[in-house]
C-alpha cells in the first residue's frame, strides 16, 4: 500500500523528469541547427528564414548568445498570448478545439477541487473507520470516503457534493458546446472551399452486363439527380501499383544516399550486399545495384499501370460523385437512393488527403464479417491483457514481491527503494505495457475497412478508451484490491467480500495518482521535446538532403496522435469525476496534468493548416476543380495535392442520349466516361 512518502518519491521523480524534458527543449530550441525541427510551420509558411545561412561557422550550429539562455522559459507566455482566432488561422480549427478540451478540464476540476478540499476532506479525515475494520490502508486512504462509517449522517455531504459536481460538469460542457459550435459555424462560413463539400462516396454499385461501372454511375445520377450532378470518378484497385511506387521511391532514396556519399569521396565507390537487409550475400557496387533495381521497378510499374487502366476488373463498384452545389451533395449523402437499401449506398466523401486508398477496394459485403472478426479479437485482447495488469498490481504489493524473491527482502525494505517500488514502479510498468497498444488497435481498425484516416483514428480511439476503461480502470481496481486485501478475503465469509471490495476501491487512488504522474506529467513534458522528429530530421539532413526542397520535405510539423491522446484525456476525466467524491486527494494531480498539457499543446504547431479563403471566385470552373480531386495518388505522378484542376470544361447543359441498356429508358446528358472512367494519360 503506497503511503504519502511513496507518493512524494514518485512526485519528485516525475517532477524532475518533466523539468529535465522542459529544460532540454528550452536549450535545444535555441540552437540554429534545430530551428527547422521546432518551427517547421513557420518555414512552410515562408515567414521564417534559417539562422544557419549567416554568421560564423560555429554560430550556424550553436547559439552563442548567452542572454537568450536566460529567457529559456520565454516560450510559455508566448504560447499563451496567441489569440484563438490567430491560432485557428495558423494551426486549424481542430487544433483549437483540441486545446479547449484541456481548458475544459481546468474549468471543471479546479472549482471541484476547491469544494472537495473545503468540505469532503475534513469530513473524511475526522473518522477512524479504517482502523476499526482492520484492513490495509495508508494516510491517503484516511482522506477518502472509505473512512466514513456505515450509516453515518456524514454521507449526506458526499451525496450533496456528488450532485453539485455533476451539475457543474454539465453546465461547463453545455457552455463549451455552444462556444465550439459557434467557432465551427464561423470557420465553415469563412474557410476555403474543399472538394469533399461537393462530393459523396457511392458504394456497392450493382454490376450491369451492358455498361461499365463509370457509365452506370453517370447514367444513374443523371436520372436521379439531374439538376445537381456534375461529375464522378470511379475507384481503381491500385494497391499493387501503390506498393511498386513506394518501393521505387525507397530505392531512389537509397540511390540518392549512395550517390551523395560517392560525391563526397570520389576515390571510393560505395558497396552493399545483395542479401537480407544488406547484411549478407554478394557484395556489389551500391550505385549500380540501386540503379538496376529502379529500372526493374520502373518497368513493373509501367506494366501494372497499363493493366490497371485497361482491365475492367480493376474498377471497383465504388465512385466519388461530385455535385454543383453543397446542397445537392448533402441531399444525396443523406438519402436512400433505391428501394434496395443495400445498393447505391451514399455517404459524405472524406477530404482527398484523408482518403485511405488501400481500403476502398475491399468489397462492401465483407465489411460486416471483418468487423465481427475484429470485435472477437478485441474481446480476447482485452481479456488476456488482464494478465500484465495483474502483474503491474502485484508490483505495488511489497509482501508479494518479498515472497517471490525472498533474497531481495533486505534491499526492498530500504525506505527509498520501497517508496520507489510502491510509488513509481507500477505506473511506469503499466505505461510500458501500453506502448504498442495504439499501433495494434490501428492495424485492427484498418482491417475493418474504414476508408478515411480520420475514421481510422476515431475507431482506434474508441477501442483504446474501452481498453483503458476495462483494463486500466476496472482491472486495476479489481486486481489491486484482490492483492492488497488477500489475507482479509481468505479469513472472512463470502458475504463480506463485496463489502471489503467496496471499502478498498477508493484506496486504489494511490495507484492512479502514480499513473497520472508518469503518463501525464512526464509524458506530456516529453511531448514538447519532439525527440523522434528531432532525430529523424537530422538523419535525413545529414544523409539525404541535397536541396532546399529536400530539406523542406525532411521537416515534419507533426500532429496530435488522436488515437491515443484523446482516450488518455477521457480516462483522466473519468478518474477525476469518479474520485472527486470518494478520494479528493487525486484532484490536484489531474489539475496539474490539464494545466501542463494545455501549455505544451498550445505551443506545438499541431495540425496541418486549414487556411481561410481571403477572396471569392465568382467565375470558378467548379467541374474542372472537382474532376480529378479523387484520383488515386499513384495516378497523379507528383502533382500537388491541392492542384485538382486538369482542364477547362464549361458545358453543363444536359441533352438526351440513349443508354446502352436496352431495357431502360433514355437518360439525359452525353456520356463523358472517357474523361472520368480511366486515370489521366501519363
UniProtKB/TrEMBL annotation:
Q: Does the keyword Transport apply?
A: yes
Report keywords, A-Z. Ion channel, Ion transport, Membrane, Transmembrane, Transmembrane helix, Transport
Give Gene Ontology CC terms. plasma membrane
Which top-level group of life is the source organism from?
Eukaryota
Where does the CSC1/OSCA1-like cytosolic domain lie? 197-359
Where the record annotates domain CSC1/OSCA1-like N-terminal transmembrane, the positions are 7-176
Stretches with biased composition (Polar residues): 665-682
The protein's name in its UniProt record: Calcium permeable stress-gated cation channel 1 isoform X3
Q: Which organism is it from?
A: Elaeis guineensis var. tenera
